[in-house]
User: What shape does this take?
Amino acid sequence: MREWIPVSTSPKGRLVLAAVKEFGARPFDEVTVQDLAAAAKVTTGTIYHHFGNKLGLYTFVRQDVERRLLDRMEGAMAATGATSDHSAAVTSAMLIGLDFAVGANFLRILAAPPPEAGDDRLAELLSHGTAPPAPLLGRVLAAAWRAALTAIAEGAQPEQARAALATIRVHRPGSA
Assistant: This one.
């Protein structure tokens, strides 16, 4: 359960909403503290007061956006996983996740790997979609999914990225 739900009229809420929009559309390094403050109609000091720095705000927003993504992907895997077709479950999750990221314009924020090394919840989810769970495969699948988002952010058509992800098949060790 969330500790805090943004109220769009509060300075913190406006910052969060502005950060979701800015970090969703542009890479972290291209978004400045001044951009965020201006978009939220607050002073730069408000960012430091509530989040410590730009990275603190980014991390807060990314965790929220990533949780929304993972909820959808987990649901897709659960719905498809009932057939015991792990490949179909993983593919379905990646496609549902792609559609969510594109529709919400979260391309850049979700295309980037998490700022904390070793804390890749997307890779972890995708590795559990394989049988048996394969952490390295989860990392490879997450990298492919993020590459599809990056391609869209750089001008590729979403349908092309979707088609590329749909071709991925996950096989159990020793299967054809």
